[in-house]
Write a structure and sequence with these properties.
By secondary structure, this protein is mainly β. The chain is 0% helix and 56% strand. The strands form 2 sheets. Strands 2, 4, 5, 6, 9, 10 and 11 form a 7-stranded mixed beta sheet that branches.
Length: 122
């Protein structure tokens, strides 16, 4: 069964750093993109960053210059290096994988991790 396992969340002081990891395991037919979303209390889930299997990246304006997304295709792993963290970064961070289904239509489907809490507070 396809599964996304996230790690690296926690409590950090403002200005600190965290590195999130997400490992995709199981029966993924073809992974197209991997990325991170986050959802703060009372707010909608928003895209943080994503990266294609070829290495093209897209990073939200709110985290540009502070967050870096990377991947290891051989390990089916995506990372989010978060530097200069701010209290506004506090949220549940969700790993996201867009993968082609092994189906008649071969459509792209979204897969989600369980979420990992990132709290930035002094």
């Amino acid at each position: 069964q396809a599964q996304l396992v996230e790690s690296g969340g926690g409590l950090v002081q403002p200005g600190g750093s965290l590195r999130l990891s997400c490992v995709a395991s199981g029966n993924f037919f073809k992974i197209n993109t991997m990325g991170w979303y986050r959802q703060a209390p009372g707010k909608q889930r928003e895209l943080v960053a994503h990266i294609t299997i070829g290495g093209s990246t897209n990073v939200a304006d709110s985290v540009k210059g502070r967050f870096t997304i990377s991947r290891d295709n051989a390990k089916n792993t995506v990372y989010l290096q978060m530097n200069s963290l701010e209290p506004e970064d506090t949220a549940v961070y969700y790993c996201n994988v867009k993968s082609t289904r092994f189906s008649l239509s071969m459509t792209e489907a979204d897969y989600w991790g369980q979420g990992t809490q990132v709290t930035v507070s002094s």
